[in-house]
Amino acid sequence: MTFCGGAQSVTGANYLIETETGQKILIDCGLAQGSRFAEDLNYAPFSYAPAEIDTIIITHAHADHFGRLPKLYRDGFRGRVLTSNGTRDVMEQAFPDNWQHIAEEAKFSGHPPLYTEADATGVMELVEGLDYYQTVDLGQGNSMSLLNAGHILGSSLVHLEINGKVLGFSGDLGNSGSLLMPEKDFIKDADYITVESAYGGRIHEDKTEREAKLLEALMHVVAHKGALMLPVFAVERAQEILFVINKLVENKIIPVLPVFFDSPLAIEMTRVYRKHQSEFNQAARDLIASGDDIFNFPGLRLTESVMESKKINDTPGPKIILAGSGMSTGGRILHHERRYLPGPDNAIVFVGYQVDGSLGRKILEGQRHVRIYNESVAVGCVIKAIGGFSGHADQPQLVDWVERANESGKLKKVFLVQGEDESAIALSEAIKAKISVDTVIPKMGESFEL
């Protein structure tokens, strides 16, 4: 197994398994994001021949796990793409939006686009949507199945059986107590597992605080007639925030006020979520069954066109703006941040992970001036981060997941990926304090014989 991406880095997941008989299987093919080296990493040639890959398994539809799939296709890949039904549907909506960003970035960078629209269309034709727990024959006596990771719609753990050995991959593990997703599954018979470590050194704040903290920021802008900016990921976080605001409005905890859902992609993803609501947790399904439209409430306005988005400025506060991207690395949120970051009557609330180097991270770390569209923008608004909305498991949950993977007693090695060094080291120490197992923090390009 070779770690071609996602090693000592939160983003860019890409793991290659080569069998004794020459079969080549990839787990994920994600974009590097956030760091100043991300563009170079994304444009760099793959460290393997894409045309020789037999199968790629996508754990979920976040760009750092599937974003380079069209580039893989462009460079010769024509094998099978296996993923969950939910992930397939999310990817289908995400690719056109991703392509627009790729084309825009190419104009500014001077690089040719990372891939073409035809590459994205072509690779989608190779995608096979699977049910959870469905066993798929990979040939040569090898097989795989997907289990629920509890992270976002369609997110999966990978249970891979190669030559009688079980390899488990966490993808991104969900945070317990998700508003929409069911609890994550466990792989209990693994010989080797590869597990994410984004929050390997952290313990999330109490989930009961997430609504209270959001309400605190919201009441600030209500009192001062300001704007509340919520940078959201189009998948999961946007839907969770709609769910919470729906509850606050319908229970009359907050007044009805303009809530602008200013992300065409997130709007489309919410339609995908409606299609897959049978995959929600029991509490969310019960609400829907009672007649509650959990993603709709008085005051909500969908601003799909550019003109509608621009008109948000004409609406006086108080108002709420949900827009992408979740790390403020692009998208419509940048226009709102340029306008509203300086004002003390306004607030920005981060409800997702902010990778090192991202604009969101810079704001969160207290930089008083940031650059947006090559302009210096003062930061004078209220700034909050709510960890309780995190879609990632924290250290206790990650350790528990690894412990459960060792229930069979045959776990030989744990590979810690998708985390900054400090997080991975902290998780390694926490695991070793609980169970006797070899933990490894692989370097980029490092290979291991299993």
UniProtKB/TrEMBL annotation:
Residues 238-363 form the Beta-Casp domain. GO terms for molecular function: hydrolase activity; RNA endonuclease activity. Pfam families: Beta-Casp, Lactamase_B, RMMBL. InterPro entries: Beta_Casp, MBL, Metallo-B-lactamas, RibonucZ/Hydroxyglut_hydro, RMMBL. Keywords: Hydrolase. The keyword Hydrolase applies. This is MBL fold hydrolase. It comes from Candidatus Yanofskybacteria bacterium RIFCSPHIGHO2_12_FULL_45_19b.
